[in-house]
Amino acid sequence: MSALPSVNVDHLINTRPMTPMQWRIVLLCFLVIALDGFDAAIMGFIAPELARDWAVSKLSLGPVMSAGLIGVAIGALIAGPLADRVGRKPVLICAVAFFGALTLASAFAPDLDWMVALRLLAGLGLGAAMPNAGTMVSEYTPLQRRSMLITVVLSGFTFGAAAGGFTSAYMIPVFGWKSILLVGGLLPLLALPLLISAMPESLRWLVARRPARHHARSARIIQQLAPDLANGQACLSVDEAPATVSSPIGQILSRGFFTGTLLLWLTYFMGLFLVYLLGSWLPTLIKDNGMSVSDAALITALFQFGGTVGSLLLGWLIDRSNPHRTLAVVYLLGGLAIYLIGTASHGFALFALLAAAAGFCMNGANACMYALAANFYPTQARATGVSWMRGIGGLGSIASGFAGAHMLGAGWTFATVFTALAVPALIAGIAVFLKGNVMPPSGLAQPHSLLR
């Protein structure tokens, strides 16, 4: 008898053109992250009207804002190991259902305490969705286009947030602030049937985790990826040795991964710290430096817009260069732009240019960190590695609120604030550069070593 035909999943995905099924996965993951962005930014849209309607101070809304960020960090830490054990698809579906249902419930919150609790719970789903969507895209896209497509999908977050802004501008004056929570809750729930029917499980996970148990499901996916190779009796494989540590958390903290994991965490913590601090406090800082409210808002919008452009261009660039050195340079240039904001005069054009440059570098580099993490960890621990980077980095976004309030409360000068903010960018640049010298254990992630 002849030997069973063998199909190497990594070789199949990396060497063939993208199929309609793969593009469908990219589109569905973009949809998930856009819905995530809409709901994650929703409190910022409704806060002024909520404060007026409930007769509470804007300061009292601080716990509501923080609750969502705390939930996101916890959700990412929980969802990664879960996705590595039970699969990417069920965790992604449950995350969307969870943040949709909790956002919908928030529309019926009777008071601020209930709103804090519901936003904390919604944050669990929001934190689980983005890293798992990024992981799914990384496992269905060819190596030479992977970083670009991951960052394109992640740009869905700013797309969703922007869509929420436009929707709020129209609906709140007509239907009230609760209507935005209803929309933000219903849209994810309406998307669930599409996600359940059209989103496959990760083929790499099926083959790497339990190939014999999942053989029938894997064969159906191969039928769509490569009909010419489809064979119900084919032997499927991936270019990874079996995991030597049973726990995904233990694996990302095991010898060979430990140093790289810590450097990924440090880089992303510093990156999110800066992005959230500038996104939250830049309008106040610019306004206090003598500019109008509208100019301050526009400059902050350019900071976000620069990040969207940076995500797309840098994703393309790191597919074609040494990603660690490229991101190190980008973080350092972002730190320089931030420092120069503090030395700039009152001219609107210069502030706008520097803010856009800072957003391009910091937001763009942060988006590329998902690709860097996905290409560092093996399939058995990839969702955990990406999600824990997001969760630990999320602590930086939480810390940014306290740091911004402290700097303003302490009376720091405009120049001093931005000089201090250049330091985290410097740390991020050094950390990601050092990460480039860290390799995973031999045989565990061989296909991905092409990026290092």
Written account of the structure:
It is a multi-pass membrane protein. Keywords: Membrane, Transmembrane, Transmembrane helix. The chain crosses the membrane at residues 25-47, 59-79, 91-110, 116-137, 149-173, 179-200, 257-278, 298-318, 325-342, 348-376, 388-408, 414-434. The chain is mainly alpha-helical and 452 residues long. It has 2 domains: 6-208, Growth Hormone, Chain: A, CATH 1.20.1250.20; 248-451, MFS general substrate transporter like domains (Growth Hormone, Chain: A, Up-down Bundle). Helix content is 76%, strand content 1%. The chain contains 18 helices and 2 strands. The chain has a two-stranded parallel ribbon with strand order 1-2. Helix 2 runs antiparallel to helix 6 (112-138), helix 2 (20-40) runs antiparallel to helix 9 and helix 15 (323-343) packs antiparallel against helix 18. It starts with 5 loop residues before the first strand and ends in a 17-residue tail after the last helix.
